[in-house]
Amino acid sequence: MVFSPGFQVNEFMCAVAGCANPVCAKGLCRSHYDRDRYSGSPLKPLRQRMCPQCHTWFDPKRSDQLFCSGRCRVAYKRARDDDKSLPVKPETTMYVRPVDVSELESELVVESFTDSQVVEKCGGLCAKCHELVDVGSSGADGAAFVWKVPLEKSHSATLANRLLVHKRCEGGTS
After folding, report:
1. CA–CA dist 38, 161 (Å, integer)
2. Which range marks the domain in which residue 112 is found?
3. Do 28 and 1 belong to one domain?
4. Do 36 and 65 share a structural domain?
5. Are 92 and 130 found together in one domain?
6. Are 150 and 162 in contact (CB under 8 A)?
7. In the prediction, which pLDDT does 5 show?
8. Would you say 58 and 51 are in contact if contact means Cβ atoms under 8 Å apart?
9. Where do the H-state alpha helices sit in 27-114?
């Protein structure tokens, strides 16, 4: 989830699908950025555990949640009161369910716009070095158009996601 360095994306939303929080760093909001730094992934792991009372699979909200509901927790406590061979805290394994990409990815949002609209939106300035871009030039000072957040991450081919940069800043020409 690391995006091209040097682009200011402070005024936009988090790149995680479904999150509408403002960007803090690296295209992520504060909570997703902290989770990415701590665990290596900005996404919450999808965990599953089997309830020791009713033997159904459930998604625990906390890592110490052993039962799928309060009803099962009380039923297990009553069963343990009757049968002392049952452990006080049953051992159940928590499994991390693999994330299905189709659940996370939204459809591509496409908006028609022209390069001149991108130049007008950016004021003719490079989004990386903030110097004037010579739109008519084909050299290093010429115009190049890049996605602020890559399409595979943002699923948004819109004018708001398009930036004007120099060819030298893009990395194409030195």
Report:
1. 28
2. 106-170
3. yes
4. no
5. no
6. no
7. 42
8. yes
9. 30-39, 70-82, 101-104
Tokens of 92: 């159940």
Residues 165 and 110 in one domain: yes
Q: What b-and-e string marks burial along 110-134, b requiring 16 or more CB atoms within 10 Å of the CB?
A: eeeeeeeebbeebeeebbbeeeebe
Query: Tell me: the pLDDT tens digits for 105-149?
Result: 567 788 888 989 999 998 989 888 888 988 888 888 888 888 888
Residues 23 and 61 in one domain: no
Mean pLDDT in residue range 79-89 = 91
The C-alpha atoms of residue 144 and residue 36 are separated, in whole angstroms, by: 31
- Single pTM value for the model: 0.42
The answer to whether residues 14 and 29 touch, using CB atoms and an 8 Å cutoff, is yes
| Run of H or E including 51 | none
pLDDT score recorded for residue 151: 78
Domain count, the chain: 3
**Which of 143, 170, 133 shows the shortest CA–CA distance to 4?**
170
Do 79 and 132 lie in one domain? The reply is: no
29, 9: one domain: yes
Mean pLDDT lowest for which of 4-8, 130-134, 166-170?
Answer: 4-8
In 55-114, the DSSP E strands lie at 57-58, 94-97, 109-110
Contact 28, 16 (CB under 8 A): yes
